[in-house]
Amino acid sequence: MTRAFKNAATALGDDALVLAQRLGEWSGNAPTLEEDVALTNIGLDLLGQARFLLSLAGDEDELAYLREEREFRNVQLVEQPNGDFAHTIARQLYFSCYQELLYRELASGDSQTAGLAAKAVKEVAYHRDHAVQWTLRLGDGTADSHERMRRAVDALWRFTGELFAPVEGLDVDLPALRGEWLATVSQVLERATLTLPTGPDRTAWAAGAGRQGVHTESFGRMLAEMQHLHRSHPGATW
Amino acid sequence: MTAIQDTPGAAGAVGLQAAFDAALANDERIEPRDWMPDKYRATLIRQIAQHAHSEIIGMQPEANWITRAPSLRRKAILMAKVQDEAGHGLYLYSAAETLGVSRDELLDKLHTGRQKYSSIFNYPTLTWADVGAIGWLVDGAAITNQVPLCRCSYGPYARAMVRVCKEESFHQRQGFESLLALSRGTEAQHAMAQDAVDRWWWPSLMMFGPPDADSTHSAQSMAWNIKRHSNDELRRRFVDICVPQAEALGLTLPDPDLRWNEERGHYDFGAIDWDEFNEVLRGNGPCNEQRLANRRRAHDEGAWVREAAFAYASKHMEAKG
Amino acid sequence: MSGQGMSGQDQLWEVFVRSRRGLSHTHAGSLHAPDAEMALRNARDLYTRRQEGVSIWVVPSSAVTASSPDEKDPFFEPSADKPYRHPTFYEVPEGVKNL
C-alpha cells in the first residue's frame, strides 16, 4: 500500500465519515418521521463507505478516533454544521452530485477502490436523487422555503471549489469533473426556481482547505464530541 | 386503509355485536371495516398510539449517543437501531389510522400530553453502557410484551407487530453483545456496565405495568384478545429469562431478594417501587419535560418544510391536471 | 388532495412491494407523503431497509375502493356452494394417473 494511495483512501474516507457524523445529528430531529428514516439511511451508507476506505488506510477506529483535527483530510463542505433543513439539503446536493461523479470514475478504473466505488455509486445516486427532490420542493415550495434554500445554496457555495482540487494518490482527474457537476447542479437549481450562486467558490487563504488538514472552527467541536468517549478509555475494546 | 364506520340501524346492532363476539370466540381477526364496539376501537387507538409514541420518544435516549459511539461499528449499529424505531413508530401510526384517526391528531395529543408513551423513556442515558442496557433490558422487556401482540385480535396491529418483532430481534442481541464487551473489558468499562444495569433493572420491570390486581385495563383487554397474558405473568417470564443472562454477562442484578423458587419453578424477586412508577407516570420522572420538549421542537422546526412539500405538491398536481 | 390529517399537509398512501422477481406485489402497509414521488421514496426507505423488495407501487389510499362488510354475504357466500370448481370434488378411479 503506497503512501499516496493511503492518502487518497483517507481523504475519501474522511469525507464519508464526517458527513455521516453530521447526518447522525439529525436522528430524532428531522421535519417528518419519514425524513428521519431517509437521512439515517444516507448516513448509514456513508458510514459503510467510510469504514471500507479507512480500513484500506489503516485501522478504522484509530483513524477516526485518535487523529487530531489537522490530520483529517475531508473537504470543508461535509463538516459544515447541519443548520436548518435547507442547509443540510444544499450540502447534500453539492456533495452527492460530486461523489456520484467521483465514484463513477473510480468504478471504471482498476484501483483497489473500484469494487467499493461500483457499489457506492448506486448508494450515492440515491442520495443525489433525495437531495434533488428536496431542492425542488424547498426552492419551489413556499416563499419562506424558497428564501431559506436560496440562502443555503449561497452560503455553502464557497466550499464547493475545493471538491475539484487534485488529491494525491487518487487516480481521477478531479478538475475535469467540475464541468459536469456544474451542469447538473445548475439544472437542478433552475428547476427549483433558484439561481446558481455567483460568488467565489473558495476562500482566499493560502493555507489551503480540508484536503490540507485546514478546517473550519466547528469541526474541532464535532471531533471533540465524536472522539471523547473512545479517548477516555485508551486501549479499550468496545 | 381508512376505515369508514358503517352505522347500523338499531335492529342490526345486536347482530353486529354477535358477529364480533363470535369472531373473538373463534380467535379470528377483526379488520378495519368490520363493525366493532366503540370501546374496543377506543382501547385500540389508545394502546396503539401509546405504542407508536413510545417508539418515537424512545429514539431520544439512544440517539443521545450516536455522535459519541466509541467505535464505528457501534455507531453503525446504533444508527440502524434508532432508525428502526422511527420505522416502527410509522408502522404503528399506520395501524392506528385504520381505526379512523389521523397521525396528526395522534401527534398533537402526544405533544400536548393528552396521550402517553412508555415511562421507561423518561430515564436518562448517562453513559455509553446505558445504550447496551437499553438494548438488553428495555428491548428485552418490550419483546416479551410484544411477541403475544402478534396474535392480537385487531388485524392491522397484529401485522404491524409481526414486522416490528422480526426487525427487533437484533436490537436485544446488540445490547447484550455491547454489555458483554464492557463487562469483559477494562475495570472502568465493567463498572460502567454494572452501573447501567443497576439503574435500568427496576424501571425495566415496571414496563410490564402495574400488578394484575391494580391494572385497570387488563381484564377487558384480555377478553377482547388484545392482551394475551397478564402483566405479572409477562414480568415473571422476563425475570426468568434475565437471571441466567446476567450471569453470562458477569453482571449482577440489583435485587437482594432475587432467588430461585424450586416449588414455583420461577425466580422470586423483591418488591417494585410503585410510588416511583406512579410519579414518573404523573410527569415527575427525570426526563419527562425534556423528551416532550425535544419532540415538540423537532415538529415545530419542521413545519416550514412540511408546508413547502405540500405547496410544491399542490402546484405540480395542478400543472399535471 | 384528499385532506388526510388535520393539517391537510400530506396524503395517506398504500404501499405494495414485490419481494422478488416472479412474485406479485403485496400490500406492505401505508405511509404519509405530500406527493407520489416522495411516497415512492419514503416507501423505499421504510419498507425495504432489509432487502424486502425489488419493486414498489404506491397508491393514494383514497383511490382504493373496498368491498364493505355489509356486502360480505352477497359478495362471497355464493362461491361457497360450488365445490365442483375444485379438483377435489371429482372421484378418480385408483391407478389412473396424470389427471
TrEMBL record, chain A:
GO biological process: phenylacetate catabolic process
A Pfam family annotated for this UniProt entry: PaaA_PaaC
GO cellular component terms, semicolon-separated: cytosol
Transmembrane segments: none
Signal peptide: none
NCBIfam families: PA_CoA_Oxy3
Name by which UniProt lists this protein: Phenylacetic acid degradation protein
Encoding gene per record: paaC
From TrEMBL, chain B:
Pfam families named in the record: PaaA_PaaC
InterPro entries: Aromatic_CoA_ox/epox, Ferritin-like, Ferritin-like_SF, PaaA, PaaA_PaaC
GO cellular component: cytosol
Molecular-function GO term, any one: phenylacetyl-CoA 1,2-epoxidase activity
Organism superkingdom: Bacteria
GO biological process: phenylacetate catabolic process
Protein name: Phenylacetate-CoA oxygenase subunit PaaA
Lineage: Bacteria, Bacillati, Actinomycetota, Actinomycetes, Kitasatosporales
Gene: paaA
From TrEMBL, chain C:
Highest taxon above the source species: Bacteria
Listed Pfam families: PaaB
Annotated InterPro entries: PaaB (IPR009359), PaaB_sf (IPR038693)
Protein known as: 1,2-phenylacetyl-CoA epoxidase subunit B
Taxonomy of the source species: Bacteria, Bacillati, Actinomycetota, Actinomycetes, Kitasatosporales
